[in-house]
Amino acid sequence: MTDMSDLKSENQWMSEERKALLGKRHRTERRFKMLGLGAIFIALAMLVTLFVNITSKGYSAFVQTRFEMNVTFDETVIYPNGDRSAQAIRGASYGNLIRNTLRAEFPDVEKRRDLRSLFGIVSKGASRQLRKIVMEKPSIIGTTTAIWLIASDDMDMFNKGYIPRNVVEADRRVKDKEIKWFDHLDAKGSVQKVFNWDFFSSGDSREPEIAGIWGAMVGSFYTLLITFAISFPIGVMSAIYLEEFAPKNRFTDIIEVNINNLAAVPSIVFGLLGMGLFLNLAHLPRSASLVGGITLALMTLPIIIISARASIRAVPDSIRQAALGLGASRQQTAFHHVLPLSMPGILTGTIIGLSQALGETAPLLMIGMVAFIVDIPGNITDPATVLPVQIFLWADSPERAFVEKTSGAILVLLSFLVFMNALAVLLRRKFERRW
Amino acid sequence: MSFTPLIILLLAICTFGYWYGSKKALTLVPEQGRVDRGQPRQFGTFVVIWAAVPPVFLFALWSVFSIMSGEYKNKVFNQIDQIILPVLLILSTVLGCYVAINKIKTGLRVRKTLEFVIFAFLILASTVSVFTTIGIVFSLLFETLNFFEKVPVFDFVLGLNWSPQTALREDQVGSSGAFGAIPLFAGTMLITLIAMLVAVPLGLFSAIYMTEYASKTFRAIVKPILEILAGIPTVVYGFFAALTVGVFFRDVGSSIGLDVVSESALAAGVVMGMMIIPFISSLSDDVITAVPQSLRDGSYALGATKSETVLKVILPAALPGIVGAVLLAVSRAIGETMIVVMAAGFAANLTANPLEAVTTVTVQIVGLLVGDQEFDSAKTLAAFALALVLFLITLGLNVIALIVVRKYREKYD
């Protein structure tokens, strides 16, 4: 036993050496902490970069350049042979109307090559635009009216500043003469950027300026509907069986292990399953949202089962015992008491599973949902595409204008996902019960 | 045959059965000494089940038969499909209804029947996932066996040359293609390695900071934000990797005199790593939180600083769990498709240089199967063989990871 003074004299932990060591250890501590904070910071910075990048590329997809032109709805062009039926109006050559309009606007353009590029400053979709106007209001025929015509993708890109003026002409997609025409229109106040309804209301197109995501959105809707209709009931029923009824035996074990493994199978493998089973064996229609929905349902099923089991397990046993004590059968207990109480949790898990399905691309490529589809799908067996696949397709297109469209579509997809996840969080906050 | 009228008719019969059954239930004389007689709606449902099960069963049987026989445009087949099948369906429904209604008598234990049927459905539902797995294994296995009839197994497993483009005419040079899968697996491994180099340190350090240092509010705010990374669709990452990160690395490379292709393995790997960060961070978060507080307290009591505790006590204790998390992340990276399809190369290139373009297993599967394919060509079948290998690798990784994690859990439970 040493006495106090002895200890003090040997006060090693206050020696200079020890202090230095302690300082070093504290510095290491701070460095370590900064490392952790730095990791989080880098991860967040990546996230922010991604969002800023996509948003800065994509926000301009929501506006569209239009040129105001005085279109003469010439009767001799619309009814070249005097036939005034609705059929004739529908089939009339609106392209000629536009060409005449452009000629009248720029009378000094005469060379054939120049004329061709002049006709190219207005979108191919403009003739559809005129047809719609005439079909809606036939009385316009014979008059000259100022119409805002959709500009071509190059003009649109130029107006939005993606094609700079100060580049050598040979390296620029928009040539000097086109810039001259553009400036002429701009000086008159005939160039305008308007909200791009076409982007939200039309299907895919080879022309970026009139390509839209409505077809893909409808396809996504049908696909998700099928996915939900299949995976939700089956998922909930399996969860109830496994949690409430299943005996502890080998069979149940196999199912459990299987579900866990299925949740980790790469999504593309599900695509091959869908292709082999539903297309090649069952001959279901290719590219249809029906097949896409079933394939995604098989993929979503394990997610739903796992989350449903967790929320069923969270219901306390006292609820079950009370129900059984009052004479309810085991099924009545499960369906009348446990299930309603665990529903919020199950729904949260389902929404999260569905939001994953909404963003899934790879398995849908396998079952042919990559086709170029212009028409809006009318039912679940029509050929369709979905938002993520549309993004993939556009990302592959060489036109500069599709970069903007792709980013725009990504923004729409992300906002759907944010909405779904917010809904899930809200559900959890509002209905979750802590027992 | 148009389905809609038939379905409406069958539904109408069922509705009638429901109505009639529940009405008939009310006329029953109560049984002596029994409280539980069943409610009218249960009797109604009883009738509906009797009415609906036979046609559904018949239809399923017919569908399976027609798929198996594969005779689609056959005339006799069409006649059965168009006329005989609907008639049979309607007859069976009516018959079912009739039998069930006759069964409604005093003393019928209707609830028992219903519960039996529901129970059968529950079991059926929970076997769906098993059948999915069986479906995956079989659909891949058959095509793979077909493939190995055309291409020897060793050429596939050990071959160094991958060029699956088969010629259009039989007599063209190189019509058999080359199916050596080594370059694909090497490419997959390279990209996975890069992804892990990004994701493991970032994810692990985030998890350590979140669990050991961060305040409750910081954690509550930052953790969900980090998880957003996991919720972003992979096609978005692919677009980002191809158009932004790839180009960025190429420009940086050329400014310092390195030759970086814009489809470099580096770009795809980094972006994939970015996607996997939350995966690793939340899994290791769970594992680190599961380390008992007593271990921390013991370490602090000995005078260790927080970082010393983390490095010398918590991480060794949590190591099996973290290894499990990393294994799961690897399996995820190997199976990831869209990022590499959009940002990695397509030509098989056996290299370990991350600045060059490599291709992966998933890229090749997509490349071989998207678009028109002739069936039974080695090219198409190769995709199934690749998918089978992919399936087995990810399955193996997952099983190992689950065992490791479970062992670890047992240690502290």
What does this structure look like?
The complex is a heterodimer of chains A (435) and B (413). By secondary structure, chain A is mainly alpha-helical. Chain A has two domains: 63-195, no CATH class; 214-431, MetI-like (MetI-like fold, Orthogonal Bundle). Helix content of chain A is 66%, strand content 5%. Chain A contains 19 helices and three strands. With 413 residues, chain B is mainly alpha-helical. Chain B has two domains: 3-28 and 36-148, no CATH class; 178-412, MetI-like fold. Chain B has a two-stranded antiparallel sheet. The chains are: A mainly alpha (435), B mainly alpha (413). Chains A and B meet through helix 2, helix 11, helix 12, helix 13 and helix 14 of A and helix 4, helix 6, helix 7, helix 8 and helix 9 of B.
How would you describe this structure in keywords?
heterodimer; A: 435 residues; mainly alpha; MetI-like fold; three-stranded antiparallel beta sheet; 19 helices; 3 strands; B: 413 residues; 2 domains; two-stranded antiparallel sheet; flat
CATH architecture of the largest domain in chain B: Orthogonal Bundle
For the largest beta-sheet of chain B, the strand count, sense and barrel status come to:
2 strands, antiparallel
How many domains of chain B? Answer: 2
Output the helix-strand order of chain B: HHHHHEEHHHHHHHHH
CATH level-3 fold name of the largest domain in chain A: MetI-like fold
Biggest chain-to-chain interface with counts: A-B, 85 and 89 residues
Query: How many E strands of chain B?
Result: 2
Fourth-tier CATH superfamily name of the largest domain in chain B: MetI-like
Write the layout of secondary structure elements.
The complex is a heterodimer of chains A (435) and B (413).
Chain A: H1 4-9, H2 16-58, E1 63-72, H3 75-78, H4 86-91, H5 94-105, H6 112-119, H7 125-136, E2 144-150, H8 153-159, H9 176-187, E3 191-195, H10 197-201, H11 214-245, H12 250-262, H13 267-281, H14 289-313, H15 317-325, H16 330-358, H17 362-366, H18 387-396, H19 400-431
Chain B: H1 3-27, H2 40-69, H3 75-103, H4 110-150, H5 153-158, E1 162-163, E2 178-179, H6 182-213, H7 216-231, H8 234-255, H9 265-290, H10 293-301, H11 306-335, H12 338-343, H13 361-369, H14 378-412
Antiparallel strand pairs in B: 1-2
Helix pairs in contact in B: 1-2, 1-3, 2-3, 2-4, 4-14, 6-9, 6-11, 7-9, 8-9, 9-11, 10-11, 11-14, 13-14
